[in-house]
Amino acid sequence: MGDTFIRHIELLGYEKRFFPSQHYVYMFLVKWNDLSEKVVYRRFTEIYEFHKVLKEMFPIESGDINIENRIIPHLPAPKWFDGQRSTENRQGTLAEYCYTLVNLPHKISRCLHVVTFFKVRHDDMNPVTDSQIKKPEVFLLPKDSKQSLTDITGPIVLQTYRAIADYEKSSKSEMALKAGEMVDVVEKSENGWWFCQLKNKWGWVPAAYLEPMDGPDESEEQEPNYAGESYVVQKSYTAVEEDELTLKEGDTIKVIHKLLDGWWVIRKDETTGYYPSMYLQKAGEVNPVRSDLRNRSAPPRRSTIRNAKSIHKRGRKHISQETYRRNSKKYIQRQWNMQGNSQNKANVIIEKNEPQENKAKAQPAVPPRPSKDLILNRCTERTRRKIL
């Protein structure tokens, strides 16, 4: 029997799940060469990471060497806030992507990377749930939408951004820009480098040099999370600006604010500062060394761009490092207080219980001895003889 390969991938819809936190997963019906059909569930972030690795495996077919040779389809990067509306709107793009993927040359469509990604996993058969949390909500594509691919797909609409200053490229993979030029963003990477298109040119551009046409783009950024997410430093960096941090490879930190320009606000112990996101990896994840660590340096920060001219009257909101530090201290102090209160409550319970445990248990009362007349009147003959 030949190698296993996929004959067809059909997008069925998506699920809204509530454990371990609210998130969305897409449902795919995967048809294999042995005529079996399996349903698998994948987050869009997983699909996007799969897509990035596929492009690295086939640089010619992905257009990295010559854009005219690209046959691997585009896939927009995940949004900073992936809500239900974006999950629903992305279905057409995903359906078209899967259709194109399966029909690529066999060296791509039947490679181990593709086959492994769409194989059934344990959590596809037994998703992790919590009986105390409500069950997932299922949203299926309408039946009439599945009859024709054109019913659920359309052209991928790219966002247009404007350059706020001149940018000189430092490598062949980048693209130079002049202030005021308009580019279409094909891919947004959270490391601060965005892949853009300008007429017949393509290349990576620092996100810090771009602004949307309709207003400052901080609406795309997450709010600060002072609880923080655990990350591990993958590459050492020495601070250049006063508000940056110097860290060594292997250090564990907390990310408290993810910014679009690829410079995240992190917390090391009680100190906060900026650090390049491309040098960080989420704790617990095991990934090979990423190509962007080898091929590109950290992108410039917005605050370091000279002669930047925005077309918007309202500037970007800026949070000072003092605000980050103050709010981080408040969060850490609150956590300590909660832990202290919990410990005190436990101690109080123990103290209240100890006297009750040490206290001697009350002995049952001894009934009075019955009188002679009572025994003679109520007891048996045998008992009466003992007192006579």
From TrEMBL:
In terms of superkingdom, the source organism counts as Eukaryota
Q: Where is this region: Disordered?
A: 353-372
Q: What is this protein called?
A: NCF1 factor
InterPro entries in UniProt: NADPH_Oxidase/PX-Domain, NCF1_C, NCF1_PBR/AIR, NCF1_SH3_1, NCF1_SH3_2, P47PHOX, PX_dom, PX_dom_sf
Spell out the molecular function terms from Gene Ontology. phosphatidylinositol binding; superoxide-generating NADPH oxidase activator activity
The source organism is Piprites chloris (Wing-barred manakin)
Q: Outline the extent of the SH3 domain.
A: 156-215, 226-285
List, alphabetically, the SUPFAM superfamilies matched.
PX domain, SH3-domain
Protein localization: Cytoplasm
GO CC terms on record? cytoplasm; NADPH oxidase complex
Q: Where is the PX domain?
A: 4-125
Q: Which GO terms describe its biological process?
A: respiratory burst; superoxide anion generation
Q: Which UniProt keywords apply?
A: Cytoplasm, Phosphoprotein, Repeat, SH3 domain
